[in-house]
Amino acid sequence: MINQSNLDSVRNRCKELRNDGKLIPFIGAGLSMRFNLPSWSGLIKIIAKELGWDPEVFELSGNFLQLTEYYVAVKGSIGPLRSLLDKQFNPKDEEILKSKSHLALVKSQLPIIYTTNYDEIIERAFKLSDVPCQVITNIGDMAVIKPNETQVVKFHGNFADDNSLVLTESSYFERLEFDSALDIRFRSDILGKTLLFIGYSFNDINIRYMLYRLHKLRQKNNISEQLPTAIMTTFSPGEVQRTLLAQWGVLVVELDPVERDKSIDDFLEELLV
Q1: Domain with CATH 3.40.50.1220 in the chain
Q2: pLDDT for the residue numbered 190
Q3: 11 in the Ramachandran plot: left (φ > 0), alpha (ψ -120 to 50) or beta?
Q4: What pTM was estimated for this model as a whole?
């Protein structure tokens, strides 16, 4: 059962952090599901057909990172995989302009937005709204940061820079070391702020590991009591997940599991615009 007073308290905390300039959105694939993009399972089937495999057999041969690693090994570089995915994650302009959530991110004028999405949907929303933004994928981008422009930090890279992509098992292991220029930038950004996770699953082990690392980092720097480690939006956390995340200082915003897109839209418009 949802505790309404607790939910209202978390939403109010979100607004306080937003108004104090201490909130950083961290956007995942769930925000883009409204565009009917293929799931990871669907992408594995596409990759399998490209390699001449039976999709069901291929999907049972490893996890997503291992199978993409295999595809790159067979093709000789990540270029063919990047090109393949780029075509799949390319909604029409009019569809992006109908997304109230993406337009809310544009109108928010927040200095920083993080995302693990490879696609260019967020930055396209800025461009279609005639609002400048700067995409950050590597140390070179950080060297030429422009004032008064929202920085869209692509934490797992984007399709415009093959070397930035975290798509394979080896690239993911390198990301887990948390010692690249982008990771150093990330640690600096979040020490005095709180991340708002949108479009992620509580079952995503990558995000759970990140939340754990963030909690430990805050404890080490004696700021764990001053700010929540993170705030996560979800449609059905359950008591187990809610309790476990609370141990890491993570607050939960529960949204409507029936009208998901509208629920996210309403929340972000109320919070950011």
Answers
A1: 4-34+92-272
A2: 83
A3: alpha
A4: 0.89
Other C-beta atoms closer than 10 Å to the C-beta of 242 total 18
Is the domain covering 4-34+92-272 a CATH 3.40.50.1220 domain?
A: yes
Return the structure tokens found at 261.
């897109």
Long-range contacts: 240-246, Cβ < 8 Å, 24+? 241/202, 245/202, 245/211
Instruction: Report the alpha-carbon distance of residue 272 to residue 106 in Å, rounded.
Output: 9
Two structure tokens written together for 263: 């629920």
What are the pLDDT digits (tens) for 111-158?
A: 999 999 988 999 999 999 999 999 999 888 888 888 889 999 999 888
Handedness of CA 13, 14, 18, 22 (dihedral sign): positive
Please give the structure tokens belonging to residue 249. 């200082």
Cα(27)–Cα(269) distance, rounded to whole angstroms?
15
